[in-house]
């Protein structure tokens, strides 16, 4: 009899490891948290067919919304725990074709949210997602944070490896609040109001960072020299995006300490 109990446990464990089982739907606390986010990201519960180009240019055809938030297009969950692991909230406000400007497609997409153009984010609304690994928030007309609910609060999510905050100018004045994100492997800060000299040592706390994207800002220099006394610790950085900035050839001396850098983007 003991043998059969042991065999049953082994079989169940194998099924779970293969992703063949998970809890029934998403966790209730996370589903409620997603609905709290819905006023700010209206299409968070959508189930949309079609390519991303169709998403921008043509009216959206949505399937019937499921009560299981793990089936939503903007949410991806663990097949074992049912917890949300990825939130794809880029450009979540849906506009009609008449709202788009052909030559400025992306920007026109994220300049409007409902009847309001701009709004403030309460980052504590993301704290229930304890297993979150990726958070994409680019292009949603966020202009700041609710008091005491800024980027530092997000650092409580200890499993986040990918964070996309692109196309939000307010980030330039708040980037220092990101220092506690030690789990990050990819950070996207394109078009985030970074101006002048940026000291790369501000990112030293990101000991696991492999990709750093700083394109489409107004960075003039990286403000770091190979001869500076305080070292640069981005030992794992492999990809650095600096396209569409105001840099000159002096940038190369600042990059000398990045011994594992494999890809550098400097186009203008």
TrEMBL record:
Lineage top rank: taxon: Eukaryota
SUPFAM superfamilies (alphabetical): L domain-like (SSF52058)
Keyword Membrane: yes
Keywords per UniProt: Glycoprotein, Membrane, Receptor, Signal, Transmembrane, Transmembrane helix
Membrane topology type: Single-pass type I membrane protein
Main subcellular location: membrane
InterPro entries named among the record's database cross-references: LRR_dom_sf, RLP23-like
Keyword rRNA-binding attached: no
Compartment(s) where it occurs, according to its Swiss-Prot or TrEMBL record: Membrane
Region forming the signal peptide: 1-22
Protein name: Receptor-like protein 8
């Amino acid at each position: 009899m003991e043998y059969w109990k042991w065999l049953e446990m082994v079989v169940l464990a194998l099924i779970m490891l293969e992703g063949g089982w998970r809890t029934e739907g998403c966790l209730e606390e996370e589903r409620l948290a997603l609905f709290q986010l819905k006023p700010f990201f209206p299409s968070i519960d959508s189930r949309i067919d079609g390519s991303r180009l169709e998403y921008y240019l043509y009216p959206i055809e949505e399937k019937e919304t499921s009560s299981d938030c793990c089936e939503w297009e903007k949410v991806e969950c663990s097949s074992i725990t049912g917890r949300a692991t990825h939130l794809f909230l880029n450009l979540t406000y849906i506009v009609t074709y008449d709202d788009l400007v052909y030559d400025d497609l992306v920007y026109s997409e994220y300049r409007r949210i409902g009847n309001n153009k701009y709004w403030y984010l309460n980052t504590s609304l993301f704290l229930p997602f304890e297993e979150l690994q990726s958070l994409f928030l680019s292009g949603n007309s966020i202009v700041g944070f609710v008091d005491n609910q800024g980027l530092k609060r997000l650092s409580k999510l200890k499993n986040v490896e990918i964070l996309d905050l692109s196309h939000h100018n307010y980030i330039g004045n708040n980037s220092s609040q990101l220092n506690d994100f030690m789990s990050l492997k990819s950070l996207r800060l394109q078009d985030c109001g970074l101006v002048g000299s940026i000291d790369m040592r501000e990112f030293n706390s990101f000991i696991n960072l492999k990709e750093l994207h700083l394109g489409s800002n107004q960075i003039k220099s990286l403000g770091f020299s190979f001869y500076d006394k305080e070292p640069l610790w981005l030992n794992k950085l492999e990809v650095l995006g600096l396209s569409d900035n105001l840099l000159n050839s002096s940038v190369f001396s600042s990059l000398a300490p990045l011994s594992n850098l494999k890809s550098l983007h400097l186009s203008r």
